[in-house]
Design a protein that fits this description.
This protein is of the alpha/beta class. It contains 18 helices and 17 strands. Strand 14, helix 14 and strand 15 form a beta-alpha-beta unit.
Amino acid sequence: MKILFLIPPNSLIERYGKLAGAGSSSPALGILILAAVARRHGHTVSVIDTAALEMGMDQTLEQVRLFEPDVVGISSTTLGIFNASCLAEHIKACMPQVLIILGGPHISAVPEETMQRFLSFDLAVVGEGDETILELLDALGGNRPLENIGGICYRQDGAVITTPRRTFIKNLDDLPFPAWDLLENFPARYAPAPFKVKSLPSASLVSSRGCPNHCIFCDRSVFGTACHAFSADYVIRMMLDLYHTYGIRHICFEDDTFVTFKHRLTEVCERLIELKLDLSWSCLGRVNHVNAESLALMKRAGCWQISFGIESGSQDILNAIHKNVTLEQIRNAVTICSSAGILSKGFFIVGHPCETKETLEQTLDFALQLPLDDISVTMLTPFPGTEIYERAAEFGIFDGDWSRMNLLNAVFIPHGLTKEDLEHYQREIIRRFYLRSRIVAGYLGRLAASPAIIKGLAAGFRAFFRSVWKT
């Protein structure tokens, strides 16, 4: 079959608001892996990233007509679901014979409700889709029934039918590399967040799936709570492909559990040290999963920055959101990271359940005490599929409008606080953190070491000033 994978338009302004200049546009790795899987099994495949190409609706529809697909696959987050539906409606209007399949985190979290609200989607892939998409395409091509395909959602006689979730792929190494070659002008078309890379060009990778933690604001609908990972050999081969084929010089590992698999982490680092590549990398990590020995090895292997989910400076809040870490563990992780010569970034959230002005002040003080090099401060957002989405009414006022869920809009306001309180503390934490001599000097040092990032950092600083002062 001919299948076109579409990444719907979702502008930086829609995603980041005033912080658009500090935002990133990265390829959708899930889509690229699905495209590679379908291509390997004989289907004719194309990928159009409308957001990266800054394509309007007319341009997008023209490209769809030129490809003449049998099937269009669209991946969407909660924020982008309305844009995805609008795109699907336009495709249906001009090419009614095309089947439109929806995938991604949003549909996996609330499949029935999404299919009922958006009639433009014919089918949906729910959860991990790499094997599902193959079975689905084969069934559609052979005009066979769908009810025995695990992990899908479809319409039948006016009803929405959801089949049981399938088990997760046992050996991720069986998957092909993401189909980066199907992206137009990769990697030049994609701009990483200026604060998260050391060198250019850069690319993102996901080296594991699943998360065993139970933070109430995280959705685990796609890959579940059981961790499974690509092997060290696979990860190295992906990195080498990006390095040699596409000239990538910085890699951002986006999976939450990159440092969790200790044996694999050691093997990856040792291989990178042996290879002696001109390559830096950054990753995410939990504060209770790092130690001085592993950080020293990571530094030797080119690790430049680690981002930690800190969330709050109040232990009571950390306990309430099931973070399962302590303030002392956070202090220790950031301190040993600094001692190892690796930059650290802290993710903070304002507006947690049970949040008060006192806990917000504690978060502000904590952010200023830690030897962090960067921070991100977002609003607590009850995304579909999360525990807080189901329990929001217990703790505050929740505006469940999916189109406003970009982590920056105050869609959830805890009892006892106001929207203005949350916006004030979000700005204040960012402003007071960055307007310090140590942080300014750190950025000047980055510019001196990596002149190629000057343009991105300049845009990031403009976005910073717009965000911390009302305009």
